[in-house]
């Protein structure tokens, strides 16, 4: 289908529309009486993926009702695997196109259930401390909840055995699994789009299971929007944990940038980014590289520059290292669900007041300003939930983030399936 015979697209939604009220976001398109037009995966592909703005959050994969979007193992990005029906949901839930993600950075009072977020400097008791990236608080929290049967498992990340430093989604169902998966992986796993497969592999029923989802803030934005508007009766996500984030890396570019510093990715056991410095170390703890993180700018996901959500504001709990001493995790408990989980896991954790709360606020503020200056469209937390295809093109066309034509290798697929 060419751009010229594209079906009509929905109008931008009204600014007066209430926040987070549930229902299908397309039905919130209150000024439109005609059924909204179709937007195809092809449109998303050209606008976000080919334009190198995809942040690999997998919201589109999770949102597709016909399972038409899969994950390209080679390229590590969404791809069409069967007929696209033009239902537009991949567009609607993509934080780099149709989803005005900043609308999801403020939970409703009902969703929060807590008057104020509570911030802690936390560290794990026992074995989780050594397994974790910082204080091991996330590992300890999830392990305690699984052992107390509050959760059946947690969708976390582990490193691919074949491909060093590449993150894979992993359904941890025991403390041992979580200890194995501890630490940060600086590439996306696309776990949100693979939850059903992970559950099926473990013989768990999505309608019965209660899972935690751990991910970068953009992943949690997608999960939160799906939860708000989808009302999937079988939604197994019972707790969301965001890892605070200013950028993630495109796996192959990360590996090749390390190579340019003569660092073999197979030797790298841990990457850490603290106070603007990137450290890579081997399994003995020997430092292989210490350099300004800016030297890795070109390896970052380009879409990250449009992200204002350093803290993971839509999550039940956020975790990072900024503002706390080495060996501690900064934990922000944002919702009543998060508070109940935090309380249930108290035996596995030591928590005190955070040392430098100002540092957290400062970084969050910097991150928001970066997004505001990079986004070709207006950054508008009060704006309509959805951004129409036309509105998006109007803002992005003519900029260095405009849509790019499809990879010729894929065109035949789209001719057949879109
Ligand atoms: C891409 C990325 C960028 C980050 N940038 C910052 C930053 O700029 N500032 C900051 O303060 N903190 C940042 N963090 C968070 C920080 O690295 C730690 O994850 C956080 O402090 C929690 O530490 P912990 O020891 O409690 O976690 P752990 O006990 O190590 O538990 C972390 C859990 O998260 C899972 N996990 C790790 N990586 C991923 C991933 N990519 N996707 C899904 N799950 C994953 C692990 O499997 C593990 O279960 C970043 C994390 C990531 C993944
Ligand atoms: S940014 Fe997320 S939702 Fe958008 S195309 Fe990429 S993976 Fe899909
Ligand atoms: S900076 Fe934002 S968009 Fe990029 S990985 Fe982190 S949360 Fe996602």
Provide structural commentary:
- The structure is a single chain.
- The chain has 418 residues and is of the alpha+beta class.
- The chain folds into two domains: 25-106 and 381-417, 2-Layer Sandwich (Alpha-Beta Plaits), CATH 3.30.70.20; 109-253 and 275-371.
- The protein has 14 helices and 13 strands.
- The strands form three sheets. The protein has an eight-stranded mixed sheet, sandwiched between helices.
- The protein is globular, with a radius of gyration of 21 Å.
- The N and C termini lie close together (7 Å).
Which features characterize this protein?
17% strand; oxidoreductase activity, acting on CH or CH2 groups, with an iron-sulfur protein as acceptor; single chain; 418 residues; three-stranded antiparallel sheet; 13 strands; Alpha-Beta Plaits; binds flavin-adenine dinucleotide; binds iron/sulfur cluster; 2 domains
């Amino acid at each position: 289908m060419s751009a010229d015979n594209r079906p009509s697209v929905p109008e931008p939604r009204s600014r007066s529309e209430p926040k987070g009220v549930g229902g299908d976001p397309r039905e919130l398109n209150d000024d439109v009486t005609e059924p909204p037009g179709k937007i195809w995966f092809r449109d998303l592909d050209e606008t976000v993926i080919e334009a190198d703005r995809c942040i690999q959050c997998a919201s589109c994969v999770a949102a597709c009702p016909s399972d038409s979007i899969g994950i390209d193992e080679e390229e590590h990005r969404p791809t069409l695997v069967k007929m696209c029906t033009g239902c537009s949901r991949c567009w609607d839930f993509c934080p780099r196109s149709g989803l005005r993600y900043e609308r999801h950075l403020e939970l409703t009072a009902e969703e929060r259930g807590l008057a104020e977020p509570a911030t802690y400097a936390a560290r794990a008791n026992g074995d989780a401390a050594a397994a974790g990236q910082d204080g091991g608080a996330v590992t300890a929290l999830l392990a305690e909840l699984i052992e107390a049967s509050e959760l059946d498992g947690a969708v976390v990340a582990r490193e691919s055995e074949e491909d060093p430093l590449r993150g894979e989604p992993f359904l941890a169902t025991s403390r041992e699994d979580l200890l194995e998966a501890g630490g940060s992986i600086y590439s996306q796993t696309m776990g949100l789009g693979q939850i059903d497969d992970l559950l099926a592999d473990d013989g768990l029923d999505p309608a019965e299971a209660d899972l935690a989802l751990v991910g970068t803030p953009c992943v949690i934005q997608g999960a939160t929007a799906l939860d708000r508007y989808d009302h999937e009766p079988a939604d197994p996500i019972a707790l969301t944990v965001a890892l605070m984030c200013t950028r993630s890396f495109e796996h192959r570019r990360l590996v090749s940038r390390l190579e340019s510093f003569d660092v073999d990715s197979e030797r790298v056991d841990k990457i850490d980014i603290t106070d603007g410095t990137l450290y890579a170390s081997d399994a003995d703890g020997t430092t292989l590289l210490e350099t300004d993180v800016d030297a890795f700018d070109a390896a970052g996901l380009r879409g990250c520059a449009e992200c204002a959500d350093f803290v993971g504001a839509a999550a039940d709990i956020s975790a990072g290292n900024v503002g706390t001493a080495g060996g501690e995790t900064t934990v922000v408990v944002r919702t009543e669900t998060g508070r109940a989980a935090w309380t249930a896991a108290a035996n596995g954790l030591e928590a005190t007041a955070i040392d430098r709360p100002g540092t957290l606020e400062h970084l969050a503020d910097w991150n928001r300003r970066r997004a505001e200056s990079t986004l070709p469209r207006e950054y508008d937390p009060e704006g309509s939930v959805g951004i129409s295809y036309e509105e998006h093109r109007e803002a992005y066309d003519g900029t260095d983030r405009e849509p790019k034509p499809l990879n010729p290798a894929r065109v035949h697929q789209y001719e057949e399936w879109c």
